[in-house]
């Protein structure tokens, strides 16, 4: 569906059951849940799908190992149940998006014998809480095996290690896939549409005034119920509804750096459960590179938060502390910062101590706000939010929640043999075929067929992303800007900023041809993308 058709639908539709503000993990999940129940749904976001926090995560689908430790130490039942629920949701996540998510073994190195029984016992409990949805059993390994699994580990003082399993995924593509799934069930998906005001009738919400960020057109969208799923910006929407609303959220910045593959094995990650200041450090294989993070500092809530050099230095210092490799600033291929929206259950707690729990609030006007949470729990959060919106707006769904067993777009007929078929039938290189299999699942053939239009060239010689993906993103995946493609339809900017800059002119050229951009629009896209890549993705 072309953007003009989406905008016409928003303007023409007399009344939606549900208007969702925010197209991150939570908003896209809510759209899938509501649309699959038979509700008439519109989803808007002032930016691209998952342009904020939801495309800048650690790429893990996890229960929260450190929350389990806190639950045991403090006998905190709430944190215990949070971990248990997240582990169940982790299993559902991998089941419903097998092309985008997979199990990943992680090694926790131990440099003190006293840590061995403590860490091992905690991870065994982690497995038990996962039950039938577990991804693999944790086990102890000796020093030599830990080094075999993760040869880059610092050898001096290493005693043993524990191997455990969590999930890993492609967050930006997961959000786009959720949006595609919602559209498949009838939802209207409209990124780059900003809510400028909430509209009320007799003190009750009846929709919103919105502005198309591409054309500048303004109009009203009417709805029986409105869900605020704006991530870190939840409070700004709440205060748009009620200027006296007190803030709910604290934000913490989480930065991640990308290094070359020599810093990580291709199939095993590393967890340092406690650094010098009590934070967690991950080193993970992701998209053929090493992903390292993260920090946990209080942060202002802004669009596109910039990364501070001291944060990069912090991560590099810990890489060098735990590795027999030397990583310098010159080794960093890309870096990004995301804001974690943390509900302030305890106003005196630091951001590192805040539980990544979620909270639903309903205002006197009927605004349903979903605050906090994390990617792993997006489905459960969406179910709860839609249940609340049905009650608040007196909606009449045609079916109950279906998302526990709802395969997402690309998953219905997914098999691991897709890559081989792409190589055989379309002559694709192995790395390109493998990438298309995991990015698109059973929809990969549709992308590959664009090779018949002469779109088989790589966007950059060192990466598996091809021109066909740009055109496919513009035609079918809501991409409106060059940055939408380079950062969230393919992860090139997240992995290698220099390569993304090199590919940018060709991406703009392809999108201009597909979207009928004039010279002025092309120049603006080049300028905006270059500025973004130079500062904050």
Give the oligomer, counting copies of the same chain as homo and different chains as hetero: single chain
Roughly what percent helix?
25-40%
Spatial shape: globular
Gyration radius from CA atoms, angstroms: 23 Å
- How many independent structural domains? 3
Structure at a glance:
The chain is of the alpha+beta class and 537 residues long. It has helices at residues 3-12, 25-36, 65-74, 77-96, 115-130, 143-149, 171-184, 234-241, 309-322, 378-393, 418-426, 430-440, 444-448, 467-476, 482-489, 492-495, 497-515, 519-534; strands at 16-21, 41-45, 60-61, 101-110, 139-142, 160-169, 188-191, 193-201, 204-212, 218-228, 249-259, 269-272, 281-286, 289-293, 297-298, 334-343, 358-362, 368-372.
Report what the structure shows.
The protein is of the alpha+beta class and 537 residues long. It has 3 domains: 3-54 and 172-248 and 355-405, FAD/NAD(P)-binding domain (3-Layer(bba) Sandwich); 102-168 and 250-343, 2-Layer Sandwich (D-Amino Acid Oxidase, Chain A, domain 2); 418-534, Helicase, Ruva Protein, domain 3 (Orthogonal Bundle). The protein has helices at 3-12, 25-36, 65-74, 77-96, 115-130, 143-149, 171-184, 234-241, 309-322, 378-393, 418-426, 430-440, 444-448, 467-476, 482-489, 492-495, 497-515, 519-534, and strands at 16-21, 41-45, 60-61, 101-110, 139-142, 160-169, 188-191, 193-201, 204-212, 218-228, 249-259, 269-272, 281-286, 289-293, 297-298, 334-343, 358-362, 368-372. The strands form 2 sheets. Strands 3, 4, 5, 6, 11, 12, 13, 14, 15 and 16 form a 10-stranded mixed beta sheet that branches. Helix 2 packs across helix 10 and helix 3 (65-74) runs antiparallel to helix 4 (77-96). The longest helix is centred in the first third of the chain and has 20 residues, at 77-96. The radius of gyration is 23 Å and the shape is globular. The model is unreliable at 348-355 (pLDDT under 50).
